[in-house]
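Prompt: For my understanding, could you write out one protein's sequence and backbone structure tokens?
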Amino acid sequence: MGGLALMQAMPSLVEQDLPGFGAAIHAIQQTVGDHFAPAQGGRFASHHVASALAWLARNGAEGIGQSSWGPTGFALIDSEIQARSLARAAYNEFGTEGLEFMVCSGRNRGAEIRTEAYRAQAHS
């Protein structure tokens, strides 16, 4: 599972190929979800979240998945404008089921390392 999907995910990420990256993430999520399905009652921990994610996928979202044990789901969207529009539409569709939809973005930059000088205090 991991090797094949990662071999697709990493080049797609570098190439900024959202459909390719999303397909790899989706494949990983399907495999992991199927593994835990007996413990969580299906591929996703929540049937409501599963329905919303399927709707998002039909409406242009990529990389559908669930964080850890859920019930938080996620989807990758090409732009912030499209994400906000899709989040509003999804809320109108699923808000009565108690679901919330948030638009989040990645840091899109490397790690930062900071050092701090430490000076030992002389003890009398």
Summary: The radius of gyration is 19 Å. The chain has one domain: 2-97. The mean pLDDT is 86.
